[in-house]
Each structure stands twice: as structure tokens, then as C-alpha cells.
Amino acid sequence: MTRDEIYQALKDILVKEFEVPEEELSLEANLYQDLDLDSIDAVDLVVKLQQLTGKKIQPNEFKSARTVADVIDALEQLVSDAA
After folding, report:
1. Low-confidence ranges of the chain (pLDDT < 50)
2. What are phi and psi of 67, to 5 degrees?
3. Exposure of 80 by Cβ count < 10 A (0-12 exposed, 13-18 middle, 19+ buried)?
4. Whole-model pTM?
5. CB 28 within 8 A of CB 68
6. Contacts of 70 (CB under 8 A, 6+ apart)
7. CA–CA separation, 28 and 37 (whole Å)
8. How far apart are CA 20 and CA 13, in angstroms?
9. Which of 23, 40, 45, 64 to pair with 16, CA 20 to 30 A apart?
């Protein structure tokens, strides 16, 4: 998956599953402050991302993710490590 494909898939998940308005999504958007996700949403997001990538995601890999770009970076690393 390319970075753009990851970003598009993440946007689709956030809009469809978490009802985040698409116009609020940007690479700099903070998951908790700007997009109003909570810790339970974060766990649900990790589950969705695992389904997307087919890879097991360790929770500690996403603890430091605060922005959309952080999530993309972590997923990009996960996908490239597995390749």
C-alpha cells in the first residue's frame, strides 16, 4: 500500500465508521481534539486498521499517534516491515 492509499482508506474508515465530517480530515488533524475520538474509538480504529492491513497491530505502536499523519506513518512502517 502506498501512503496515499493508506490515507484514503483511513479517511474512508473515519468518515463511515466514526462519522467524522470529511472536511475536518487533514494530515494535521488531531484524532482526539479535532476529530473528537475517544479511547474506545481508538481501539475500534486499530481493529479496523488490522482488518485493512491484515497485520497484527500492537497497541503500543499507536499510543503515540495523535494526528492522522501519525497513524499513516505507523501503518506505512507496519506494511513496509512486513514486506
Report:
1. none
2. -120, 170
3. exposed
4. 0.87
5. yes
6. 64
7. 15
8. 9
9. 64
